């Protein structure tokens, strides 16, 4: 029989054990070893059965066992120590509280919006790298004391669970998640009623949502849930699953995340006294509507749309994670228009103004499509990509929003992602470090960084490092066999068929890991291009290789599913199945075993389509070496000490099959001739000394770079603090001033021109260190010199006379306007480099409240007839 209603019966903890409830409800346990060990001591078997989830554990432990623990003095002392440690962690001053900047105070609070958060497997609200990054961002912010508020959605089915059919086809399952069984609590009014946010929908409908709060250390994570009784069936399903449904379903999810999320933040701050955010950080375009809600708030206070837009932009940060336009959510213009304005959401905001923020009204765009990333960029004064290479790719991809500017001047910077080491470093690795520098210093090294602490790895003996690597490899072998047996049972195999699994993998064989989502550009099956050669590597008599593979294809991506099946079928071959395995249902729990147990982490995307690729960072923190295409973070920090770079064949006319053949061959060559020989090259002491040295250097030199603590500190100093300063500067009057100035500049700009350029050096050859005197005549129309900056732009030139590595030199006005209203600007231009050299001049708008000269996307450049000096080359 099936139950007609489900609910959770919570245990009543004896008074001495009451702190267990607080410890279970704060997700710091997910990265704090002592807390996890305490819960394991409550009931070791129950801990494993509960999936290492304290809330589920406490829901299943017997009353008899609780009574025993309440009398166990040793356990109670441990409980007191762990509870006191959490209290110190939550209340003490940390990096943020001790940090100061010369330009002003740090933000009182930052709201961080993301469609998914990967904090722990016990809260399955993530699909892949974007969510794991968001979870690590929250955890690192907590460790550093950054006053962050996370905002997301609570999906009742999460992302899908993956299994395989007998023939290797991916199958999806969507288990129902009960928030009452997860480490979250419902946000309630003082009278006990749930807090509710509501959105207006077309035809008089409403979308209501409750707010669940997960406490991630010091950081509250607010998750909106539309599964409430007041909603109709379709509205209840808005937060049913992550990245599911059609266009309108996705639009409603993103409206709830952005608009509802701001309303949830306001409610939370009012109820708890948490400082109101001065900065709003949009992690990818899904939450971009948050800017519209903030404009609506200001409009209700009597602020005009344009002024409200400037005020909102000043305090908004936008992070893009995708290197390809296909990865961005885009909606039909009419669909968006139907959900805004009178009779729908934001009735006080002009629908056309809403549309203008997201429509692709630029060369190469589709003007009837509403682009969430474009809206994110137009609503944020500061934007970034997630690695140096990805920043450059993003500047090129979105250059149409800033016409007239070279891609390298597009105002998108980069902050390279990092990973939260306390979450991803295996306990065995941490304990080895703690023995050398002490537990507290080891914790600080993982959370905050500091190369001096990581240098202590140099003091660890080769034998200790090698013994640790084998221990971790052995744990992975056990984990793989357990998961592989469970997978084959799901595929319909009986026990009599599965005896071979006991011989799968070997703890003494070079182990390569590959695990990630399975879009085509990540090339899951590149390793299969030459199956005979791969088989020879797997079965090599002296230098064998074993490979562990995991990954999920999107439920709607049949191409990705075919790649999974192709890999699974190869790994099912009895000749090689003991050396290559595919593990279904890749998630955080599996990853935390996989990264430490591998010797080499493989990544072979199509360059430059990997925005960052943080899985290799997590592997590196455990002493795993990277074998990767130079893409994402690896392009930035690769050194031969840390691993190997797979050469790419990315010429402009390269055939796809030919490219894959060449890069697969390069991969095989590296493994056969460099990776495997180094692993198996043993010295007189039986140790692979050169391999161990690479592990040591990876930990000591790469480790501090890949930390989420480093990443969050960069966000604070480079983006959050300047955004807070700009937010404070944009008072209502200042916002109106800036909006009015922009309108005046845009109206006048068609009459702004570089009229003539003169230079005192007519020759095309000049000497290093000499100076040219530039004299430029410009037309400003209705503008004044204080509205613009006239610049000389100089640098090397390529064969097409394009400036490279250019530098700008401001020119100054020389007297008032002439009879035709033209202004003369003058200035020196120093020839500071040899070889092909050139310059041009340009006019940009300038205002004290602009974040960048390219902000308006306006620039006036010389024409062919401007004068003798424009574009002169010195060779």
Automatic annotation (TrEMBL):
It is an enzyme of class 2 (transferase). The keyword Transferase applies. The keyword Ion transport does not apply. Residues 13-123 form the DUF3417 domain. Keywords: Allosteric enzyme, Carbohydrate metabolism, Glycosyltransferase, Pyridoxal phosphate, Transferase. Signal peptide: none annotated. Its cofactor is pyridoxal 5'-phosphate. It catalyses: [(1->4)-alpha-D-glucosyl](n) + phosphate = [(1->4)-alpha-D-glucosyl](n-1) + alpha-D-glucose 1-phosphate. PANTHER family: GLYCOGEN PHOSPHORYLASE (PTHR42655). This is glycogen phosphorylase. It comes from Streptomyces gobitricini. The lineage of its organism: Bacteria, Bacillati, Actinomycetota, Actinomycetes, Kitasatosporales.
């Amino acid at each position: 029989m099936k139950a007609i209603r489900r609910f959770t019966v919570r245990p009543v903890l004896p008074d001495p054990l009451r702190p267990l409830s607080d410890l279970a409800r704060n997700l710091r346990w997910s990265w704090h070893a002592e807390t996890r060990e305490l819960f394991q001591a409550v009931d070791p078997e129950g801990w494993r059965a509960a999936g290492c989830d304290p809330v589920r554990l406490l829901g299943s432990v017997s009353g008899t066992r609780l009574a025993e623990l309440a009398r166990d003095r040793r356990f109670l002392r441990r409980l007191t120590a762990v509870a006191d440690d959490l209290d110190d962690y939550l209340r003490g001053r940390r990096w943020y509280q001790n940090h100061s900047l010369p330009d002003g105070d740090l933000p009182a609070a930052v709201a961080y919006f993301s469609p998914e958060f990967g904090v722990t497997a016990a809260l399955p609200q993530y699909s892949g790298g974007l969510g794991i990054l968001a979870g690590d961002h929250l955890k690192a912010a907590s460790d550093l004391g950054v006053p962050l508020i996370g905002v997301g959605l609570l999906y009742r089915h999460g992302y899908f669970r993956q299994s395989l059919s007998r023939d290797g086809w991916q199958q999806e399952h969507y288990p129902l998640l009960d928030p009452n069984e997860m480490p979250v609590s419902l946000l309630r009014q003082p009278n006990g009623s749930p807090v509710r946010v509501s959105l207006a929908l077309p035809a008089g409908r409403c979308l209501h949502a409750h707010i669940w709060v997960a406490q991630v250390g010091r950081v509250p994570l607010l998750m909106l849930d539309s599964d409430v009784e007041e909603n109709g069936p379709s509205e209840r399903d808005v937060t049913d699953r992550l990245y599911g449904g059609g266009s309108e379903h996705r639009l409603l999810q993103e409206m709830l995340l952005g608009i509802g999320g701001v309303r949830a933040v306001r409610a939370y701050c009012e109820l708890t006294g948490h400082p109101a955010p001065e900065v709003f950080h949009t992690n990818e375009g899904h939450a971009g509507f948050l800017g519209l809600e903030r404009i609506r708030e200001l409009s209700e206070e009597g602020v005009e749309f344009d002024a409200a837009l400037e005020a909102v932009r000043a305090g908004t940060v936008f992070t893009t994670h995708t290197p390809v336009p296909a990865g961005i959510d885009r909606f039909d213009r009419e669909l968006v228009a139907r959900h805004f304005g009178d009779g729908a959401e934001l009735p006080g905001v002009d629908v056309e103004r809403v549309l203008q923020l997201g429509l692709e009204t630029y060369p190469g765009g589709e003007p009837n499509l509403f682009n969430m990333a474009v809206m994110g960029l137009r609503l944020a004064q500061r934007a970034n990509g997630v690695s140096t290479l990805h920043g450059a790719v993003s500047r090129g991809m979105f250059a149409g929003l800033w016409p007239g500017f070279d891609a390298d001047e597009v105002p998108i910077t980069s902050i390279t992602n990092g990973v939260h080491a306390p979450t991803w470093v295996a306990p065995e690795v941490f304990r080895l470090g703690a023995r050398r520098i002490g537990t507290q210093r080891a914790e600080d090294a993982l959370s905050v960084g500091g190369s001096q602490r990581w240098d202590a790895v140099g003091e660890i003996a080769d034998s200790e490092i090698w013994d640790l690597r084998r221990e971790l490899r052995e744990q992975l072998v056990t984990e793989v066999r357990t998961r592989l047996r469970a997978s084959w049972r799901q595929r319909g195999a009986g026990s009599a068929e599965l005896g071979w699994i006991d011989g799968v993998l070997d703890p003494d064989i070079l182990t390569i890991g590959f695990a990630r989502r399975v879009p085509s550009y990540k090339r899951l099956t590149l390793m299969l291009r030459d199956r005979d050669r791969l088989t020879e590597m797997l079965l090599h008599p002296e230098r064998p290789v074993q490979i562990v593979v995991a990954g999920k294809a999107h439920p709607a991506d049949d191409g990705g599913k075919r790649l999974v099946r192709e890999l699974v079928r190869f790994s099912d071959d009895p000749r090689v199945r003991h050396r290559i395995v595919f593990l279904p249902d890749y998630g955080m729990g599996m990853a935390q075993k996989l990264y430490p147990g591998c010797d080499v982490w493989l990544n072979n995307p199509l360059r430059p389509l990997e925005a960052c690729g943080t899985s290799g960072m997590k592997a590196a923190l455990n002493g795993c070496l990277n074998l990767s295409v130079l893409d994402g973070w690896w392009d930035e920090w690769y050194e031969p000490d840390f691993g190997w770079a797979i050469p790419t064949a990315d010429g402009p006319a390269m055939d796809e099959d030919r490219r894959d053949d060449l890069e697969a061959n390069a991969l095989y060559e590296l493994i056969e001739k460099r990776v495997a020989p180094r692993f198996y090259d043993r010295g007189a002491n039986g140790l692979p000394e050169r391999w161990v040295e690479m592990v040591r250097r990876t930990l000591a030199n790469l480790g501090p770079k890949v930390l989420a603590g480093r990443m969050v500190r960069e966000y604070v100093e480079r983006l959050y603090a300047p955004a807070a300063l700009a937010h404070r500067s944009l008072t209502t009057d200042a916002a109106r001033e800036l909006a009015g100035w922009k309108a005046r500049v845009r109206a006048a700009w068609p009459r702004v021109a570089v009229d003539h350029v003169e230079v005192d050096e007519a020759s095309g050859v000049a000497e290093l260190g000499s100076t040219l005197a530039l004299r430029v005549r410009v037309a400003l129309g209705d503008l004044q010199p204080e509205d613009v900056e006239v610049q000389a732009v100089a640098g090397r030139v390529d064969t097409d006379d394009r400036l490279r590595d250019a530098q700008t030199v401001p020119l100054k006005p020389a007297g008032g306007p002439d009879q035709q209203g033209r202004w003369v600007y003058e200035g020196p231009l120093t020839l500071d480099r040899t070889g092909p050299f050139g310059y041009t001049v340009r006019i940009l708008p300038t205002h004290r409240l602009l974040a960048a000269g390219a902000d308006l996307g306006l620039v006036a450049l010389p024409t062919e007839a401007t004068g003798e000096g424009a574009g002169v080359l010195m060779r």
